[in-house]
Design brief:
This protein is an alpha+beta fold. The chain is 35% helix and 33% strand. It folds into two domains: 43 residues; 52 residues. The chain has two helices and three strands, in the order αβββα. A three-stranded antiparallel β-sheet has the order 1-2-3, with helices on one face. It is flat, with a radius of gyration of 19 Å. The termini are far apart.
Length: 95
């Protein structure tokens, strides 16, 4: 990177870890407030379970919650994991 931009400084692993942890805490807090609002207003969220396969044949599963808050459709990814092949019910249930 120094050849491209001599002034560039790599972020330390500790710095990146601290920032990611802080962002995760902030995101979790915001989502819990949204869920509390859903419960308070008696709204019913919907959930989806989606599968994706990449070009390299790796498969992933995403568990997403959808809800309406302040007249806006919102969604949050609750879980994202790699799923081994084949996509049998036994493999899916194990996650």
């Amino acid at each position: 990177m120094k050849d491209v931009e001599p002034r560039f400084k790599n972020a330390s692993r500790r710095s990146v870890n601290t920032k990611i942890s802080a962002l995760a805490t902030q995101t979790r807090s915001h989502f819990l407030k949204e869920l509390a609002a859903i419960a308070k207003h008696g709204l019913q969220p919907s959930v989806t379970l989606d599968f994706w396969t990449g070009r390299d044949s790796q498969s992933f599963m995403g568990f997403i919650i959808y809800y309406v808050c302040d007249k806006q459709l919102k969604h949050t990814l609750l879980c994202f994991k790699e799923v081994p092949s084949p996509h049998t019910s036994d493999n899916i249930v194990s996650f």
